[in-house]
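Lecture notes, continued. The same structure-token format from the folding unit now serves as the input rather than the output. Read the line below as a description of shape only.
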């Protein structure tokens, strides 16, 4: 009986470690050095429809203020994905650094059904 209980607990613990190793965490405050902070909500919206940053290495903090999973992609004006996709579970946070030239970029969540989660990132 004890063995059957320990196996699911070990699997859950291993999964939690794997998730945190991929940049996700349960931290509620984004890093102080983030250039852009994007909050995601269960209402399938971001906290803003437009963000801005200065060209160069831009650190984006993606914070899940709800309980459902979200992703964040940065896409150039010519529809090319830039850098890594950030993925966050409920209450989680992920951070990524993107080297961006001046211009406009689209931030969006590509989870099916989350099409309203879009914003413009203007880099100057």
């Amino acid at each position: 009986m004890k063995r059957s209980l320990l196996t699911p607990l070990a699997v859950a613990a291993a999964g939690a470690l794997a998730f945190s190793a991929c940049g996700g965490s349960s931290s509620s405050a984004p890093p102080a050095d983030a250039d852009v902070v994007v909050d995601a909500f269960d209402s399938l919206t971001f906290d803003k429809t437009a963000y801005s940053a200065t060209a160069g290495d831009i650190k984006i903090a993606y914070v899940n203020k709800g309980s459902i999973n979200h992703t964040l992609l940065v896409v150039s004006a010519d529809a090319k994905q830039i850098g890594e996709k950030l993925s966050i579970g409920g209450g989680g946070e992920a951070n990524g650094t993107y080297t961006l030239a001046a211009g406009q970029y689209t931030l969006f969540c590509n989870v099916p059904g989350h099409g309203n989660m879009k914003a413009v990132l203007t880099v100057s």
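Point for the exam: Residues 26 and 105 are 27 Å apart (CA to CA).
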